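Internal QA ticket QA-208
Title: Verify multi-chain structure generation after dependency bump
Assignee: T.L.

Test input:
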Amino acid sequence: MVEVVAVIVVAVVVVVVVVVVVVVVVTVVVENLVVVAVACAYTLTGNAGTFQSPNYPDNYPNNAECSWLITTEPDTEVILEFTAFDLQTSRRCRDDAVSVYQVPSGFSESLPLRLRHICESGSYTNIRATGNRMYITLHTDGNGTAPGFSAQWSIFQVAAVVVVVVVAVAVGVVIVE
Ligand SMILES: [Ca+2]
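Actual output:
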C-alpha cells in the first residue's frame, strides 16, 4: 500500500514539473516573438501628394510597421508637412513613433539620414530632404493607439532657384552697366 502511494506521489510530482516546464517554455517563446500584426509599405511618386497612417482618421492599429518611400523628379528636393499629427505620447518615442529619413541617391553611398523622430502630437511643417527621396516609417507597439497622421509632400525645385538667381544677377549687371 505504501509503495502504491509513493508511486502516485512521484507520478503527480513528475506531471506537475512537466506542466510547469512547458508553461515556462511557451511563455518565453511567445514573449520573444516579434509580433507584427500590420505591415505595410508604400511607394509614392510624383511632385506632390498626400498619405495617411492606417485607418486615419480612426485610430491606427497596434503592432504596426509601415513605411512610405517618396520619390520626386530629379533635381528637386522633397518637402514634407504633417497637416495632422496625433500619436500616443511616450518617453523618447519608445511606444509609437514616426521617423523621417532622407535617402541618398545610391543606397551604397551612405546610410539614410534620419531627419526627424516624432511622437508628440503637434504641427510639423517644412521637413526637407536634400535630394528627391524621402522615407517615412511608423512603428506602433502592443497597446495604446491614437488617430495618427495625415501628411502631404511637395517639392523645392533646385534647378528653378539656380535659374532665378542667374537671371537676377544678369539683370542686375545690365542695370548697373
Ligand atoms: Ca501604442
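Spot checks passed. The chain has a mean pLDDT of 85.
Status: verified.
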